[in-house]
């Protein structure tokens, strides 16, 4: 009797379960389906024009540099400049004892006067013989000799004049002048020192530092990638010259911008790099030759790119950047080939579609192909914190029921850092 009652109880329970299942099917929603769909926070990706720049290492170089050396031999009598000051082209820097050079100039001048005094007599004799030879009063030989004497006298004047000029130049060289304008270094010698013409040791060095040059180093691989992107249309040249901004060694930004002036036409076989030269104004003399800097160089603009939040990007087993997006309510994993860091985001111009919802929170709980419920958020660009996005009227989240909450979007400008 007891076994019969147990059998009836089990049969009733089975019948009740079948009725419940049928009721669920009638309403078109299998039991447990809603609870199985994970909720993820997403940011909507929109195509936008993104300015692109690259950061290159560089060294500050004087725009002009001249080592000052004596061009005559002698004893330094006086130094006229203050070390570390600015000097102008042609300004007197040193005075070499001019006595011997003054004497040489005076002697050359006297020789010139002597040569000039011989010309009138030679000219008169030549003129007289020219008239006499026509009357056969003198021989042709005597006439030719008179002409030769006149020519030699004139040549002696020219030679003496050249000697005077050379002596004057040597005398002028006893005053050593600045070959360029700029800031002058310390002096390597003092008054009383003997210097020689063209000596190996420079007396001092002058550098022009306003404007000033910065030599930047770029790899040939980066150059080829940029050229390929330009030719393929993924990168649009800014035109009108390439702008450059500097970051100093202490992390501060140099207040004045500059432009690229030229690039070398050869690549170093040892390093695989070549040099770009930027020119900047330097009125405050903040940039000094030899300083290490980093330059932010504008490469152009990517006309259609996406900024993927950094927290949405992970690495696969091969070390490649990937991200999870939601398309038609299901999770899709994307390989972000060619992605590069752009401020707090990743810059992507491939694989991503306009309107893709990239998962920024909850991605560890889902796999590719899973159906999910999305909650749209925005990310604070300063702190990286997630917060609910402002609702967009008339739009709802993909994968959410029709009666669900309005669609939320990420409203921010591209980070141009």
From TrEMBL:
A GO CC term attached to the entry: plasma membrane
Residue intervals of the Multidrug resistance protein MdtA-like barrel-sandwich hybrid domain: 66-206
Superkingdom classification of source: Bacteria
Localisation per UniProt entry: Cell envelope
UniProt cross-references to SUPFAM superfamilies, sorted A to Z: HlyD-like secretion proteins
Ranges where the Multidrug resistance protein MdtA-like alpha-helical hairpin domain occurs: 105-174
Region of interest (Disordered), ranges: 390-417
Main location: other
Record family assignment: Belongs to the membrane fusion protein (MFP) (TC 8.A.1) family.
NCBIfam families: RND_mfp
Name the UniProt record assigns to this protein: Membrane fusion protein, multidrug efflux system
